[in-house]
TrEMBL record:
Solcar repeats: 18-98, 108-194
Compartment(s): Mitochondrion inner membrane
SUPFAM superfamilies linked to this entry: Mitochondrial carrier
Organism: Pagothenia borchgrevinki (Bald rockcod)
Transmembrane segments: 24-42, 166-187, 207-229
Protein name as annotated: Solute carrier family 25 member 53
Length: 290
């Protein structure tokens, strides 16, 4: 009897391990596709954030640089977003599986996905901040002459302390990623189920739920994104802390919330499109692998 149970247990263990591996893979593929499609919007938003420019001015800058440079810097966000969401979806699923049996009668089951997302977002931030740092330096047009390539940026960053080099802006990035993941995994599935309950197809409902969840996340957390981009946009110079950097940013925006949110409309558009696609592609892969 015991001998007959062991193969079944081994088979279930292998199947469970495969499901866990699939969540990492599905998260990466979903992000890879969405990043390639939405990168021009992302680059326009980034220029608005660091140059305090309007949409037309940001587009004019990119147009004057030519179509060859439009995808300059795409390697970093492509690697970062793919790695980021590989970790995010995979770790969230792994943490959730660990929390579920150990938290019975302590935490509401409906809160567990959000808590697992919080933990996954914190780990993701620590791993991906160096990639975001390189990306920010690359996409700042003012660095084109003295830091034109990935190699030149890496050489400069290697010469810096980690806190002012690769991990510049870690605190706002961690806060943004952890809170964003908490909200995303807390809302996405209930929203999808509610939309399906209203008659939307299983293909459309995850896309719309991803868009709506992203909208809820993007607007309140946008100032953290602007702060991180401005902290990371150059190498060297005065090494300001988070509060000093925020004060400088707030002054540069003339103490205006409207100017602080410059580029916010495109951020919401890009984020909605990106997370709608990520959620839909991930959900489709998950169903097909099941």
């Amino acid at each position: 009897m015991a001998g007959s149970l062991k193969p079944k247990q081994d088979e279930e263990g292998c199947r469970d391990q495969m499901v866990r591996s699939n969540t990492f893979f599905h998260g990466g593929i979903s992000s890879l596709l969405s990043t390639l499609i939405t990168f021009p919007i992302y680059k326009t938003v980034f220029r608005q954030q660091i140059h305090n420019a309007g949409v037309s001015e940001a587009v004019r800058q990119l147009y004057s640089e030519g179509h060859v440079k439009l995808y300059r810097g795409v390697v970093s966000p492509l690697l970062m977003k793919t790695l980021s969401n590989t970790l995010l979806f995979g770790l969230q699923d792994t943490i959730l599986r660990q929390l579920t049996p150990s938290s019975q009668n302590l935490i509401s089951p409906s809160a567990l996905p959000a808590l697992a997302g919080l933990g996954a977002g914190m780990v993701e931030a620590v791993v991906c901040t160096p990639l975001e740092r390189v990306q920010s330096v690359l996409q700042n047009g003012k660095n084109d002459r003295h830091l034109p390539t990935h190699k030149s940026i890496l050489v400069r960053l290697n010469a810096q302390k980690r806190s002012s080099g690769y991990y510049r802006g870690l605190l706002p990035i961690t806060a943004r990623n952890a809170l964003g993941s908490f909200i995303y995994f807390g809302l996405q599935e209930p929203l999808k189920d509610a939309l399906e309950g209203r008659g939307l197809s299983p293909v459309v409902s995850p896309f719309i739920s991803g868009m709506l969840t992203s909208m809820v996340i993007s607007l309140p957390l946008y100032p953290l994104t602007v702060l991180a981009a401005n902290m990371q946009k150059q190498v060297g110079g005065e090494d300001k802390g988070v509060m000093a950097s925020w004060k400088k940013l707030w002054e540069s925006r003339q103490r205006s919330v409207a100017l602080l949110y410059r580029g916010g409309s495109l951020v919401v558009l890009r984020s909605c499109m990106s997370w709608g696609m990520i959620t839909a592609i991930y959900d489709m892969q998950k169903k097909n692998s099941g």
